[in-house]
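Aim 2 progress update. The chain analyzed this quarter is reproduced below.
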Amino acid sequence: MDRRHFLTLTAAASALPFATFAAPLDYAPGLVTKHLKKGDTVFLDFKADWCSTCAAQERVIKALKAENPAYEQHITFINVDWDAHSNAKLTKSLRIPRRSTLVVLKGENELGRIVAQTSRASIKGLMDAALGAAMA
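Predicted structure tokens:
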């Protein structure tokens, strides 16, 4: 094996552990409906870059995903930028009161929501409910 092939294979192999973790999708009109119609379980994270509660929630979500890859394999995570979409049709139809709101949807049903909570147990409970619905 020559040096070029060795370096290519090494780079590809080192990227494999990260390939299983998809980044959350960024909300755009129609995206949630598209995934719900496909039968996906959707985890919505209404957040703002400047929000410290949102940042705390994000740290917990990332840690839980790292511990259990099934979350990312079976749940569609969508970030909704509060500054851009606080008055969007989706936000109004779900009656989202503020940023730092997490919501799980499956089909026509809301399976759960958390508003301004950062506890690991609360967020894990919501993510477990989403995973259970996705696996059902």
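Residues 3-19 form the longest helix (17 residues). The radius of gyration is 17 Å. These observations will guide the mutagenesis experiments scheduled for the next reporting period.
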